Recover the amino acids of this structure.
């Protein structure tokens, strides 16, 4: 793997790309209001890779949708790059757990979809799309259809689509959750490389403790009913990281810290 083009000094603690203060989200239902998020204070620094880890139903995806402008906080404030979020912020890319590729469009046509929606120069966008597909090992599948690809290849294509207009902020909602372990590991390595080379800000949602530690500068640990951030953990591991780092004492220390939070909340049990 080539050396990283991004040093840790590229992370700007003074100018967070995402700034949430006392965020609260309530959904109305026939049986009464359901509080999904409470007392969310979260600042994601410019150039940082921050993961949110928590059990199913803790509000991780709701939090991401609020940042993306797909949901509105019930109370509190949410700013992206200094602007209050009232709709989808500019310069934002999003990757979902399902790849959401259109089966009647080829891989390159799927990747170019965002460029078409945003009225970009399609010549330049195509060059960018081909570069991304090459980076993710899909250069031989440009004119294939999604149904001809494996699950991992489809998710690679969906990441290319999110990156084609070079967003400064990338939101990822459990993008590798449905993949097998080996494919997930490989995509973790590839995502880390893309992030290091680009300097983007990444907010990554996962329920995988090891995945969060491997990828992140910091990990926000969430509880549920309602979703709250219980602990923020700085991950001081050298970059670039390879998969063997997961066998190190330091790595085990960080995964243990996160696991201890879930044990204390009764979300995990030792027996």
């Amino acid at each position: 793997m080539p050396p990283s083009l991004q040093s840790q000094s590229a992370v700007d603690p003074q100018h967070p790309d995402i700034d949430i203060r006392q965020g609260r989200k309530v959904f109305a239902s026939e049986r009464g209001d359901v509080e999904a998020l409470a007392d969310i204070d979260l600042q994601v620094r410019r150039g940082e890779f921050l993961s949110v880890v928590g059990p199913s139903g803790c509000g991780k995806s709701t939090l991401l949708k609020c940042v993306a402008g797909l949901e509105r906080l019930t109370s509190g404030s949410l700013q992206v790059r200094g602007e209050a979020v009232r709709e989808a912020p500019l310069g934002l890319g999003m990757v979902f757990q399902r790849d959401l590729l259109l089966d009647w469009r080829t891989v390159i046509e799927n990747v170019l979809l965002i460029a078409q929606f945003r009225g970009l120069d399609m010549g330049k966008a195509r060059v960018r799309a081909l570069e991304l597909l090459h980076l993710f090992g899909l250069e031989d599948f440009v004119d294939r259809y999604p149904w001809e690809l494996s699950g991992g290849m489809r998710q690679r294509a969906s990441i290319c689509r999110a990156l084609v207009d070079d967003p400064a902020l990338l939101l990822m909602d459990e993008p590798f959750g449905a993949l097998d372990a080996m494919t997930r590991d490989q995509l973790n390595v590839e995502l880390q490389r893309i992030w290091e080379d680009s300097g983007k800000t990444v907010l990554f949602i996962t329920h995988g403790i090891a995945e969060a530690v491997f990828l992140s500068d910091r990990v926000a640990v969430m509880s549920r009913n309602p979703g709250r951030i219980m602990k923020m953990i700085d991950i001081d591991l050298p970059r670039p990281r390879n998969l063997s780092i997961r066998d190190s004492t330091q790595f085990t220390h960080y995964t243990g810290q996160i696991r201890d939070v879930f044990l204390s909340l009764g979300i995990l049990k030792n027996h």
